[in-house]
């Protein structure tokens, strides 16, 4: 019973409609690469959310890989330590 009360209190002022959820899921789907989800096809919301999570994880991995690669390049470059420090500060 208490969970029902807390749910009704929370949803009283900030209720989101199914139409709004559908619109947000559609916007997420539009952000995904075409190869992952076709934007013109009706895709279940759960799949769009899962694909969004997978895509964000892959972007994080790509950032990590590029950061590591850049660090390696900075370590082997002929630039001065001052220049390298400036580049590192911009990346942090």
List the helices and strands and how they pair.
Blueprint lengths: L1 H12 L4 H14 L13 H32 L4 H11 L1
Features of this protein?
single chain; 92 residues; mainly alpha; 4 helices; 75% helix; bHLH_dom; transcription regulation; HLH_DNA-bd_sf
Structure description:
With 92 residues, the protein is mostly helical. The chain has one domain (18-91). 75% of the residues lie in helices and 0% in strands. The protein has four helices and no strands. Belongs to the bHLH protein family.
Structural class: mainly alpha
The poorly predicted ranges are: none
Can you tell me the overall shape?
A: elongated
Q: Tally of extended strands?
A: 0
Largest β sheet strand count, sense and barrel closure = none
- What is the count of distinct domains? 1
Mean of pLDDT:
81
InterPro entries: bHLH_dom (IPR011598), HLH_DNA-bd_sf (IPR036638), PRE (IPR044293)
Keywords: Growth regulation, Transcription, Transcription regulation
Domain BHLH: 5-59
Pfam families: bHLH_ILI
In a few lines, what is going on in this structure?
By secondary structure, the protein is mostly helical. It has helices at 2-13, 18-31, 45-76, 81-91.
């Amino acid at each position: 019973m208490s969970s029902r009360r807390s749910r009704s209190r929370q949803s009283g002022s900030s209720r989101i409609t199914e139409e709004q959820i559908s619109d947000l899921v559609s916007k997420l789907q539009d952000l995904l690469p075409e190869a992952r989800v076709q934007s013109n096809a009706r895709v279940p919301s759960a799949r769009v959310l899962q694909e969004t999570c997978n895509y964000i994880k892959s972007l994080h991995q790509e950032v990590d890989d590029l950061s590591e690669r850049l660090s390696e390049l900075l370590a082997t470059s002929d630039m001065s330590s001052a220049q390298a420090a400036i580049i590192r500060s911009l990346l942090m």
